[in-house]
Every structure is written in C-alpha cells, then in structure tokens.
Write a structure and sequence with these properties.
mainly alpha
Length: 148
Amino acid sequence: MKCEQVKELFPELVEHKDKYPDATAHLEACSECKTLFHIFESISDDAKVTLAPEKREMNFEIIHKKMKRHDRVVFTRRISSLVAVMLFALVSIFNVNSSRQVTVADISDEVLYLQSESISVPKTSLDDEAIIAYLTQYENIENIGGLF
C-alpha cells in the first residue's frame, strides 16, 4: 500500500488493525507512517472523554433548550416574513383597485426629475450687465478693469 492510502485508514486502524494486514505491514516498513500513526493514536486516545451520567444529562438538557430556542427564533422570523409579504400584497391589491388612476400629469416635476436618469441643466443666458454685476461682487476692481 502507498503512504496516502494508509494515512486515510488511520481512523479505522486505531480500532481494527487486524482488518487491514497490508496497512499494518506498511506501518512496520515505513518509519514516517509509523510515527504519524502513533501521533494519531495518542491524539485519538486523548479525544475520548467520558462524562458522568449527571453531567451528560445536564449537557443534553442545555443543548435541547438552545435548540428549542433556535427553532422558535427561526419560526418567528419565517412567520413575520410571511406576514410582511401578505400585508404588502394586500396593500398592493387595494392600491391598484383604487377608483382614481394616477397619471403622469398628477406627478410633480420635482418627483419626475428625481426619478429620471437624465441630467437636465438649464441653459444660462447671461448678458453683459449680469457678468459685470457678478465680477464686481466677487472679483477685484483691477481684474475687471483689465477685461475692457
């Protein structure tokens, strides 16, 4: 057997070495696999923990309570989502069946502008007097004199 195949069998070899004679022969021949198997055995022995029956029962009750709570939370979320969808559908039905139909003329220009993707910039037509008034307000007199 190859090293990779033996490494895959480590969990089964811990409990049943006699079922895999090829793997045990490989472990005796390959020092690297043998070392890794001994490490795996020591780790798996440490992982086996036995609890007292009282402690095990208490842990089971705690886990069971947490699972029930989790189920209630999930159930509540599902029900509230279903209710929200049903309310939305109900409001939509009554809104669609209203007697007054909304037309484009009923919607204000500001709402239409905000919902459109176009950018409309009004054309500016400035006469010379408006330009001079702006420059006198925001620029120095020397700069204005240089323009004429």
